[in-house]
Amino acid sequence: MSNPFFEDWNTPYGIPPFDRIQNEHYLEAFERGFAEQNVEIDRITQNQAPANFTNTIEALERSGALLAKTGMVFSNLSSSDTNDSLQAIELALAPKYAAHEGRLLNNQALFERVKQVYSSLPEADLDADQVKLCEDAYTRFVRAGAALEEQARDQVMALDETLAELQTQFSQNLLKDTNEFELVIDATEDIAGLSQTTLQAAKAEAQQRGKTNSYVFTVSRSSITPLLQFADSRELREKMYRAYIRNGANDNANNNQPLVSQIATLRLQRAQLLGYSSHAHYMLDDRMAKNPANVSELLGQIWQPTQKKVAQEAQDLQTMIQERGDNFELAPWDWWYYTEKLRSERYALDEDQIKPYFKLENVRDGAFDVAHRLFGLTFELVNDVPVYHPDVLSYQVKDADGSLIGLFLVDYFMRPTKQGGAWMSEFRAQSNLDASVRPIVVNCCNFPKSTPCLLTMDEVRILFHEFGHGLHGLLSQVRYESQSGTNVKQDFVELPSQIMEHWATEPSVLRNYARHVDTGETIPDVLIDKLLAADTFNQGFATTEYLAASYLDMAWSGLEAPTMLGVDEFEAKAMAAINLIDVVGPRYNSGYFQHIFAEDNYSAGYYAYIWAEVLDADGFEAFKENGIFDPATALSFRQNVLERGGTAEAMGLYQAFRGRAPAVEPLLRKRGLLTTSST
Ligand SMILES: [Zn+2]
């Protein structure tokens, strides 16, 4: 039987012919895809004509079409509908893919030509998106070490390998240390305050570990949180808290502290070989934030008001302790416990009261309606399209003038063959190089399947969030595929998704889509008020622990010379530098800071969550100033952000939309960090 990846697809919308694609087609298509791209690259490097944009940069962009076509189907299905055979292919493929990529970026003849085009950019007559394409190609090679002398390049590669090993070791140690720790509570101890559900889970954990008549708590978040929130025994809370902050830093074989120092030192060495003064400079050069100074400035603007807010929250908790007749000073292990008491006093909200207003279909149509009111888009269900699973629905998306935008697939339900979490992806990306290629975008979520399917408020936000990424892919209007849609810097990609969450909770929008599943009645205002009021509660604490971890990340990544300090001293010094309040610790200490030590990608990058939130809060403020469905504001957001993908610097795109650089005040207001009252 012929391999469908080797044919043009004459399906509706050119969607992959899922009914004909068999597992055995993938490896064959990948092998041919690698070979084809190698031939295409040889053709570029062996070209006798001098290097120019068309014969080098654009030719490189055009190369690897079969690989991309196969890769998109494969990566989507191995995330959303996998099986043993796909998983085996995934394992076999990973090293081949890495080797192919490595060969390409280490191809000196290719790099020479890219460099020639890059060097002649000032004299070249190119459009802005072409200049960006060339700069990005050049940077990609340089960041992989292509511009270095052979010896230095070998050193970088050796450092990459060692770092990969150390980072894996970090993860494995942490997993072991987490599994080995147990807080055993026997019959003599005080378990008052803990719920039946919590105790049942702790009992099951104990039984699994062969312990009868006792409860076992671990240092996993799901175990710690209920104990810290509800255990009346202060002694238990203290034990749990102390165990948590030493995770991965205990005096045993799993201790990650030596690895942390080593990783920081080797990253510094690699950055300096590549011409950067620190690991943070190296990482941030490839992000919207650009450099550590910009990150510091942003964190500093949020840190100041946060310190005031968290001190006030600490005062509120201390007052509560006093009022209950307990005569002690608030300690870190008391925070969750008294906060829960305050929360239930102020914002008691019953999930079962809320859920009937959030039927999946209503929420989905609510999101479609927001896109209609903002951009004039219409979503029409189409049934003649092959899909990879019966749960998938396909929508034809049209613009206000009736022209086809693309195809939008929704795959909302949980199943064993699907990865956890929620994401947006594509089966085909938009481009406009030789012909207009329309995107095929998919939103995947993991809502428990039931009829009716009622969502929690978090799930409603997730649906709108992924829909925002979906619009970024759908509304893309770029020439080159590698610049389309969500192919933007890591600290910019969450703007379209997070901004969409704001519409989900706007009262006027809620009144439109949040209708009772049985009666069709609109959600009452008193419920809306309760839903929204809880948003700013305890945000001084949440922001403090998050920012403290971001500062710790920047302290390690920003080293410009190896540190002589031990990890404990290093952490203490970094926290002293920001005057961290002593009843709140950073969300992660180094020993269990997976984001930054288990892989490169999020190192010097933990700040990105709040960076993106600054953008979405400030961006939505533009809509609030002019009306949340103001056509001119929507058009500006569409034309300056959603349509532009990675064709220009992210900060420039944002400023073109907003008319100025992002400001932090909207985020501070949203998190309730600007208020001085104690409510
Ligand atoms: Zn996202």
Structural notes for this entry:
The protein has 679 residues and is of the alpha+beta class. Among the domains are: 4-147, Glutathione S-transferase Yfyf (Class Pi), Chain A, domain 2; 182-245, no CATH class; 355-520, Neurolysin, domain 3 (Orthogonal Bundle). It is 56% helix and 6% strand. It contains 27 helices and seven strands. It has helices at residues 23-45, 53-62, 65-80, 84-105, 108-119, 128-143, 150-180, 196-208, 221-230, 234-245, 257-273, 279-284, 292-323, 335-347, 351-354, 360-375, 457-474, 495-504, 507-513, 525-533, 539-557, 567-577, 594-597, 608-626, 631-642, 650-658, 665-670, and strands at residues 183-186, 214-217, 378-382, 393-398, 404-413, 423-428, 440-447. A five-stranded mixed β-sheet has the order 3-4-5-7-6, sandwiched between helices. Strands 1-2 form a two-stranded antiparallel ribbon. Helix 1 runs parallel beside helix 4 (84-105) and helix 17 crosses helix 18. It is globular and about 85 Å long. The protein starts with 22 loop residues before the first helix and ends in a 9-residue tail after the last helix. Zinc ion (ZN) binds next to helix 17. Zinc ion is lined by residues 465, 469, 494, 497.
Ligand names: zinc ion
Helix content: 55-70%
Overall mean confidence score, pLDDT: 94
**Assembly state (oligomeric):** single chain
Through-space gap between termini: 69 Å
Q: Helix/strand/pairing class, anyone?
A: alpha+beta
Number of helices: 27
CATH topology of the domain at 355-520: Neurolysin, domain 3
Q: Order of strands side by side in the largest beta sheet?
A: 3-4-5-7-6
Largest sheet: 5 strands, mixed
Extract low-pLDDT stretches. Answer: none
User: How does the overall form come out from the CA principal axes?
Assistant: globular
Q: Could you tell me the radius of gyration in angstroms?
A: 27 Å
The share of residues in extended strands comes to 5-15%
CATH architecture of the domain at 355-520: Orthogonal Bundle
According to DSSP, the number of beta strands is 7
Per CATH, the class of the domain at 355-520 reads: Mainly Alpha
